[in-house]
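Quick one, T. Sequence first:
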Amino acid sequence: MTAPAEPPAPAAPLPCPVTTTVAVIGGKWKAVAIYHLLGGPRRFSELQRRMPGVTQRMLTLQLRELEADGLVHREVYPQVPPKVEYSLTPLGLTLEPIVRAMLAWGAAYRERDSQPGQSDTDSD
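Structure tokens:
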């Protein structure tokens, strides 16, 4: 005699859309790389120069993840020495308003933070 079949496990709830977005473009360097790719295709070394502080290994990992998620296209040109360019895919380009909003928010925050006497604890 066989045991009765187990009922199917309930489906995991879908994550919050903000969680999904952060999962895809989160990470210290992903949004920065996307920002620099908004200006058009870039070679790896050019991206690295535009992103002071990122290591070669970390930039490689972040670009690979963005490529795996369909946001970045990696084009390898058959020449010596090899030439590789990164560009945003049509899906990656849809992130432009988000990245531009991050740019504006960061500039405003930096400006607010640079004002003497301003802090989060100030009250009216």
